[in-house]
Structures are given as C-alpha cells and as structure tokens.
Amino acid sequence: MFSPCVSLVVDKVTVMHRTMDITGIVTIIPTAPPQQLFQSFVVGAPIVKNHDGAGLAEEWLGTVKSFGVTTADKLAAISTDGQYHHGGVPGRFLKRLRDSEEDVAQRSKRPCVPCLWDDAHLLQLADGDARKGDGCQWVRETVDTITRINKKFTHGKAYESFRDTIEALGGEGKGILLWSDTRFAPHAAKVLKAFIANLPAFKADMEKQMMSGDVKSSVLVEIRQDIKMMTG
Known about the structure:
9 helices; 5 strands
C-alpha cells in the first residue's frame, strides 16, 4: 500500500501549567477528493519533561515512530520556531531517527530534510522589532492602555460589577481578553474587538465608581482620564 510522506510541524503549548509538544503532520490522503488531498492531523502532545535539545529530539522521535515514520525518507519537511532551531532540535532528531533505523545501509545515509523556520513566528519577530521603532510607539501605548483598562475588570468585585453593567446595558459586551506576546495577529484582533464591544460597559462602570464617592483621589484622576479617552 502506498504510504505518502509527511511534513512535521511542532510547537509548544502550556495548558494547566504543563508544557506539551503539540506535534502535527501535513500529508496527502490519496483516497480523498482532489480539493482535500492535503490534510493535517495532530499526532502527539507529550508532556515536556526535558527542555534541552536532546530531550526534545527524543520526544519527537517517540512521537513520529508512534504513527509509523521510522525513516527520514518519509519526512518531506520540518517546520518549527526559533526555540527549536536554536536548540538544534531538528538536526538532533534527524540523527536519532537515522541511528535508530534497522537497515545498516540506511544508517549510513545522511538525512536530507528541509528544516524550516515557521513563517508565522518570523512575522511575529518582525512585528516585535517594528514596534521598537520611534514611529511605532503608539502601538505599545495602545496595548498598554487597553491592558490597563481591561485589568481593572478581570476579577473580584470589579468583574462582578462589570457583568452587572453588561446586563443593565442589554447584554452588549464580550468576555475580557488580554494581550499575549506569544500569540499572533488573530488573537490581537479578538482582543481589540472585545475591548471595543466592552467600551460602553467600561465607561458606565467607571462613571458609577466616580459617583460612589468611594474612590481614592489618585484613582479618580486616572478614571477621569480613561473616561475622556473612551469618550473621545
């Protein structure tokens, strides 16, 4: 039976304080309709116990062997981000894969697999560098302002008050989202959309705080500035 090559895609993710190596493959499904020939699958998510290059390479090896890739000839390409490349993980992995082959002739071959730096990560690095320029300071200021206002309402009494305000306004609002330096543009768009949707509730809640007379003078100044910014 024909067994197509696969491209390997790996990245780390932290869930419930535990770091996992999310491993995916992109491959051809010969029996699929023409428009669906290329398909992707998550094939492993081992907990990372050893974070150095050798340890990660060993994890990759265990994962690919679990779905039948036992030779470098079955790998079309590897794509991952800078953390793996800096640790030499792709090269270490390919060497371990070659050394684990039963065929002596195969073990004598040098693996030839393109190891790519994930484009999305490169774009993120470029975006980060661009923000450091003098002409892009407004981006950092915008992020800081949105984060500061969002964090006023993320927990405790303030969060409950925010929810009550949302209900009083007819339920117009979204869950509060915070910026993340490890997520890409789609997440930033979600943060912005949620913030804009929540502006009426933020403003109404801050006005309610001002009227309560229960706010320190230093906080009151900040609230007034925020309300002015949101109104303008």
